[in-house]
Specification:
- It is a single chain.
- The chain is α/β, with parallel strands linked by helices and 298 residues long.
- It has two domains: 2-84 and 144-217, P-loop containing nucleotide triphosphate hydrolases (Rossmann fold, 3-Layer(aba) Sandwich); 221-282, ACT domain (Alpha-Beta Plaits, 2-Layer Sandwich).
- 34% of the residues lie in helices and 31% in strands.
- It has ten helices and 14 strands.
- Strands 6-7-8-3-9-10 form a six-stranded mixed β-sheet. Strands 2-1-4-5 form a four-stranded antiparallel β-sheet, with helices on one face. It has a four-stranded antiparallel β-sheet with strand order 12-13-11-14.
- Strand 12 and strand 13 (252-257) form a beta hairpin.
- Helix 2 crosses helix 3 (103-116).
- The longest helix is centred in the middle third of the chain and has 16 residues, at 162-177.
- The radius of gyration is 23 Å and the shape is globular.
- The two termini are 37 Å apart.
């Protein structure tokens, strides 16, 4: 288990991380969200022992993270950190050796992952000769070649098409099943909703939203009512107090409301038409993120 307890990091008068705490259990995927400059990268560097916090502590399985413990951590950076003049095999052997692995074991694990990611023929190719998507696969392999206890994923799907996104997703789920603690960061909220059980939203280094994703969405007052059908009196719905907006996409209406108490009033109008769908849904994480961060900016 990773425990981040009351960490603070200052650069002069600038507070990059402000008394931040969270825990990531074994086999849990945790979301760390925030705009650029929110403090995510500083937090990652503190967790990996690359930066020292001004206050607080970080432990992995009860041990303070030092050079020995970093052998049990993997990190997929947003900016690729590959040595492009090396071959795939040379690159992974280099990273694996840094993590204390023997060459024979590194090559065995590499062959497994190259086969799984359908790029076995690229083993002796130079990194610079690969497409951006295949470079991202190699970046991922380099982060997990040590079978880490803790895996940090910062925008891991950059440059990947939907087929390759699925390959990486499946690999992440398998690591989760094996007990790896995973921190996931992305600006694409649909990935956060897919993966994360719990999350923290940072603004200027301070956690403004945290907890279980299901609770955050359930407790957020604003809801979306999805309606599909014909002869629906949309103009009447728009006049209801508490209706924020009504949009239509391919015959389906999305009615945003202030809270779920508005839903029965909308249903009383909708039921007069020929309705094929009526669903009161939680707001998306993207909507919650925009309102939470936008409110701070204001």
């Amino acid at each position: 288990m990773l425990i981040v307890k009351n960490i603070t990091k200052k650069y002069g008068k600038n507070v990059a991380v402000d008394n931040l705490s969270f825990a990531v259990a074994d086999g849990e995927i945790f979301g760390l969200l925030g705009e650029n400059g929110a403090g995510k990268t500083t937090t990652f560097r503190i967790i990996m022992g690359l930066l020292e916090a001004n206050a607080g502590e970080v432990t992995l399985d009860g041990k303070k993270i030092d050079y020995n413990e970093t052998d049990h951590i993997g990190f997929v950076t947003e900016e690729r950190s590959l040595l492009t003049k090396l071959s795939v095999q040379e690159q992974i052997e280099f990273y694996g050796t840094l993590k204390g692995l023997e060459k024979e074991e590194i090559d065995k694990r590499l062959d497994y992952w190259l086969d799984r990611f359908e790029i076995s023929s690229y083993k002796t190719r130079k990194i610079k000769e690969l497409s951006k998507g295949n470079q991202q696969k190699i970046q991922f392999i380099s982060a997990i070649i040590n079978e880490p206890k803790l895996l940090i994923l910062d925008e891991p799907f950059t440059g990947l098409d939907p087929i390759n996104v699925k390959l990486i997703k499946d690999a992440i789920y398998d690591l989760k099943k094996k007990g790896t603690s995973i921190i996931f960061s992305s600006h694409q909220m649909e990935y956060i909703e897919d993966f994360c059980e719990k999350l923290v939203l940072l603004v200027k280094g301070h956690a403004i939203l945290e907890g279980k994703l299901s609770d955050i969405k359930s407790n957020y007052a604003k809801k979306n009512i999805m309606v599909k059908g014909s002869n629906i009196e949309i103009d009447a719905i728009k006049k209801i107090k508490g209706v924020i907006s009504v949009t239509e996409n391919q015959g389906e209406y999305c009615i945003k409301v202030e809270d779920k108490s508005i839903a029965p009033k909308i249903f009383n109008i909708v039921k007069k038409g020929d309705v094929t769908k009526y669903d009161v849904a939680d707001a998306s994480l993207n909507e919650i993120f925009i309102e939470a961060v936008g409110g701070i900016h204001e």
